[in-house]
Amino acid sequence: MCRLLAYSGTPLFLEDLLIRPEGSLVSQSMAAREARTVVNGDGCGLGWYGERAEPGLYRGILPAWSDANLTSLCRQIRSKLFLAHVRAATSGGVSTSNCHPFAHGRQLFMHNGQIGDYALVRRRVEAMIPDALYPSRKGTCDSEAIFLAAIGRGVEADPIAAYGAILAEILALQGRSGEPVRFAAVHSDGARLFAFRWASDGQPPSLYSRVEDGNLLVASEPCGADAAGWQAIPSGSVLEANGTGAIYLRRFDPTALALASAARAA
């Protein structure tokens, strides 16, 4: 599984969270503590919001610990909202186009998880991407497909509803598949930030949050010498920061949506 980190708050240099702290994201790429895959060396990426309308994006196939360009960018970029990801590939090969975050307009998305038995449902999942958006499909991994399909469902207006609907449809496509769908993910439009933690088998990847002096930090694993203040985001929920300082924890249950849809179709 991958590792990720997102920040929303007072502008700071990216290295202050991604490189310098004990247990930083870069160190997690070498030795994750709460993942089945200890080494996350199949690429890395950054997405950050600055003074322009659309976010900046950097992705590469080098491991984060040996990517000199990543280190240089983190030392120079100051941002009030950014997403960062180190990858351990579960679907799709090791390529820049499969590295997270994914961007479309002002939207950024990154994911830690899987669509179980993806090879069996891949064609039908990709069919969920609207024709007008399909040229934006550059990679082969399941995460990008989820993102583009959600854009087609109105993610700009309501990310919670969009991702819920897409994951419910994927569950319906899987039928009685024994492999779960797991979704620990972060989405942002530059103002709002959404952190999702859910799995169809009730065992989602780890995801934590910490609020300090009005600044929100979301990470797969706590980072920094002081672990106090970190709280696990509950399974089956989404954390929403609306850009005004307010933070909400909401229920997120695509399984219920899938069951309701099946009942209506029966």
Automatic annotation (TrEMBL):
Task: List the Gene3D superfamilies.
Answer: Glutamine Phosphoribosylpyrophosphate, subunit 1, domain 1
Give this protein's Gene Ontology molecular function annotations. Answer: hydrolase activity; transferase activity
Is this entry keyworded Acetylation?
no
Q: Which residues form the Glutamine amidotransferase type-2 domain?
A: 2-263
Q: List the signal peptide residues.
A: none
Q: Which SUPFAM superfamilies match?
A: N-terminal nucleophile aminohydrolases (Ntn hydrolases)
InterPro entries, sorted: EgtC-like, Gamma-glu_amide_hydrolase, GATase_2_dom, Ntn_hydrolases_N
The lineage, from the top, is: Bacteria, Pseudomonadati, Pseudomonadota, Alphaproteobacteria, Hyphomicrobiales
Output the PANTHER family linked to this UniProt entry: GLUTAMINE AMIDOTRANSFERASE DUG3-RELATED
Asked whether the keyword Transferase is assigned, the reply is: yes
Q: What is this protein called?
A: Glutamine amidotransferase
* Listed CDD domains: YafJ
Keyword annotations of the record:
Glutamine amidotransferase, Hydrolase, Transferase
- Documented EC number(s): 3.5.1.118
Enzyme class, spelled out: hydrolase
| Coiled coil ranges | none
Q: Which Pfam families match?
A: GATase_4 (PF13230)
